[in-house]
Amino acid sequence: MNSTKILFVCLGNICRSPAAEAIMTKKILDSDMEWDISVDSSGVMGYHTGEPADMRMKQHANLRGYEITSIARKFNPGKDFKEFDYIITMDDENYRDITSMDTEGNYTNKIHKMMKFCKTNKTDEVPDPYYEGREGFEKVLNILEDACNGLLEKIIDDNK
Ligand code: 4NP
Is CATH 3.40.440.10 correct for 4-158? Predict the structure, then answer.
């Protein structure tokens, strides 16, 4: 398998996409595929650039055995469209923002909505937990675990 590069994208890069990055990283390590697949995350907005992930997200993820270590950065269209093979957005607004930066439509096939990889969760988007309580963070983790399972299967399938 060639090395496949995944970039998860949310709004602030402090809740959803860093959690997706940590979950996917663990699934890749557990599957002994760390030489084949690498993972990163970024945000549409740069407001939290340079900050660690939201403490609530880190704590909830930790309880499930995931360690979120990433530092927030803003999506870089000049670099990220070329560098990554799968650019995966968390909600419809993220999807619209990222596709609108692909002005020539050269990278349409790389941009995906995270929900399309879910097998059991049937919501349309990975909801923003920033203004939510504990349930909001747990719900995000349930969705992300489900979607990461589907995404890993899809990548393995795409590389057969
Ligand atoms: P995220 O959540 O997009 O999952 O990182 C958010 C984090 C911060 C803000 C919004 C959403 N904010 O408005 O600062």
Answer: no
